[in-house]
Amino acid sequence: MSAALDIAPRRPAATARDGILIVDDHPVVLRGFRQLAEMEGIDGVFEAEDIVSGYRMFHRHRPGLVVTDLSFGEDGLSGLSLIRRVRALEPATRILAFSMYDDPVVAARVLEAGASGFVMKDTSLATVLEALDAVRAGRGYLPHAIATNIAILDLAADRSPLTRLTARELQILSLLGKGKTYTEIAHILTLNYRSVVSTTSAMRVKLGVGSLAELIRIALSQPGVRSGLPAR
Q1: Which of the residues 35, 71, 107, 136 could staple to 118 if both were Cys, CB 3.0 to 4.6 A apart?
Q2: Which part of the chain is the Response regulatory domain (predicted)?
Q3: Whole-angstrom Cα distance, residue 146 to residue 153?
């Protein structure tokens, strides 16, 4: 993100409320987005390193724009819960999510949760600025390739097992793929042990598998799940 300092400030895009909240557990990413926000002329830049402090920060300051990663610690999709809570508290908030992986299933879940845009972390600076401008102006933003893949998934949903799962099921599947036990998953996701077991059973029915081992094989065969759904 350091290249942002080499680009001249531009005319800020219109936004319903000013201010931006950046949520990521990497200090370098936080610093990079702060530089971008300042370059874009956004007044009020707030930062958080996890979803709990991120939501508290949002609740306190109510910025018009939220930029959040999707993966924090071992929980590959915890950013989705932040997006939902922000959207429930302030429906007009514009949200841009970012990830290291270009998984169309994850991108679709992000949009369903209430984000306006999705962008890759390793994309060019120009693309990040384009995404920021679009979301601030109230438009949606998806990289063309991901938008195309989402459309393909919609047409062939039955051939993509992950499209049948809820966000919570994807979280549990991701952790199963990492070798976590039911007890460990319950602790990581702050769930009741029985809830983890029943959700896993529901996934087996949805995916038509007869054992936990088969479920884990599906997790390991899907790029997004194998990488942590999604990692940074």
Answers
A1: 107
A2: 19-136
A3: 10
Instruction: Report whether 182 contacts 196 (CB < 8 A).
Output: yes
Q: Are 75 and 51 in contact (CB under 8 A)?
A: no
Pick the CATH number of 160-226 from 1.10.560.10, 3.30.70.260, 1.10.10.10, 2.30.42.10: 1.10.10.10
In this prediction the pTM is 0.63
Fold of the CATH domain 2-151: Rossmann fold (3.40.50)
Q: Which residue has the tokens 């994309």?
A: 123
pLDDT digits 0-9 by tens, 188-203: 888 899 999 999 998 9
Domain range list for the chain: 2-151, 160-226
CA distance 81 to 90: 14
Looking at residue 12, the DSSP 8-state letter turns out to be P
Residue 20: Cβ within 10 Å count: 27
Enumerate helices (H) and strands (E) in the chain, giving the number of each. Answer: 11, 5
In sequence order, the 6+-apart residues with CB closer than 8 A to the CB of 39 are 4, 5, 7, 9, 10
Local confidence band at 6 (pLDDT 50, 70, 90 cut-offs): very low
